[in-house]
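Protocol step 6 of 9: fold each sequence in the batch and record its structure tokens directly after the sequence line. For illustration, a two-sequence batch is reproduced in full.

Sequence one:
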Amino acid sequence: MPLFLNNEDVEQVLTMKTCMEALEVLYGELGAGKAVAAARTDIHSPTAAGSGAEAPMAHYLKSMSGAAPHFGTAALRFSSDIVAWRQAGDGMRREKIPTLPGERWLGIVLLFNTANGELLAIMNDGVIQRMRVGGTNGVATKYLARGDAESVGLIGSGWQAGTQVMAVCEARKIKKIKVYSPTRANRESFAHDMSPAVGVEITPVDSQEEAVRGVDIIITSTNSRKPFLGPEALCEGVHLSCMQRDEADDDALHRCSPLLVHTHLTENNSTSSQLNEMATPGFEFRDHPMQRGIDWKALPTLADLVAGRAKGRERAEQITGFVNKIGLGAQFAAVGAKVFEGARAKGLGREVPLDWFTQDVHP
């Protein structure tokens, strides 16, 4: 029978080491053309929650899918959110608003057995998506950062930033991390909570410039939709690891050689004409509304790197870069398989009847 696994169940079985190992196998398969990933689908439609709101708001239905033959699994991940694009200082941030009862969000992963099509598990997507984002950057760091890298400058102190720290500490023997985010209380709380979690000294600092000064690895982990990191931040030998495509500006990315991107796939965006009529001039209702001067499809991908078709760092003085431009459903097939395996072994989750999801007619 299929297992229902909530975020607490996932946390009990999914370590960053396990996550990165599964992802590295997946990228090898993607590079060989064996694993399959489809482009993400984004649908933006009007929402009653946006009536009279100061910021642009929409209902955002997101879905992604993929298959990982090594694990014998395929996955479909989808979420249903109310999103808003708010000005924050000189930039713009996209926020997912917890509008469901109890101030909660909705996101689900369906994991399937590719041997017979069986539904293996239904999972909350929160913890697994957070881990696979951090793990993806961690795999790239393993291949691109200097072998002796030991210091990190982190921009961002939100929930996603935590797994970025876990992953970089898995990829390299990190001794010191500096963290900056605009709100002092947030960066101090992050340092206090994450230092013991990873066993590394994390120091909150008062500026972005201080965070990136003299470090071996720079990590951006924000929800910014306007670039804020310039080329002056990148010194010889540094590795730049971006969680989003709109964090480092074009000039900073052009300094990286090699510069790799997660995937050439991009989101298929469909937006209600009603929303577009409501938008201010120049604004687009989409995940990343800003056009960039980077030809993403001309860059090698992480799968190319893991499969040996693209070169990584060859000299200590190189500035390398990785942009985690968009997620892949195949990540959930690979990491989800390890979660399901671990949950079965520990007796976690709740079984639900398989016949709830099967039928005796062929659609």
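Sequence two, same batch, same settings:
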Amino acid sequence: MFPDLARDDVFRLETARLWLRWPRASDAAAIHRFCSVWEVARYTARIPHPYPIGSAERFVYAAREANACGRDLTLVMTFRKGVREVFGSISLESRGMDRLTLGYAIAPEVWGKGLATEAVQAIVDLGFGLTPSIEVTASSRIENAASRRVLEKCGFAFAGVGLEGAPARGGMVECHKFRLGREVWAEENARRRREPVGLARAR
């Protein structure tokens, strides 16, 4: 699904405030810290709580393997300036040959700063830019209003309520489902390019 450009571990995305790059073994301690927080784990399908020792290392290995194969793309978030410790992760996973599914988790201490929106916008742009995908899908626990706002700000449309598998939560959980099609993304992307820089930053 993903081309050679993204299959090399030197690959990274830069935004106004962030670097999104491949996870490394040296990131495991930081990943363990934010994944161990219940407020992070509770809204995810796969992060168990308590977070077992060694899980961060296994996450890094699995992410790097999937990245290298071009099957999925999982990146970690750091600030471009100052302390560059990892405080979140974000992924696009392939669903067949023409769809991607978005997932992300971010440490509570950086909530409310627009960083998740910045990261989601960057990786969605990349997904449509580098792959033939016609759609990116996402889901959010119905009680996770903040995640819903992030998706809506990035152009995702509400697609209904349904049950999603959540192994780390013990089975199925009720979620809001979202989707963003290529045509809608292209229109929004063109609008952003036309928009004056100051106005774009104010949104």
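Proceed to step 7 once all outputs are recorded. Observation for sequence two: The two ends are 32 Å apart (CA to CA).
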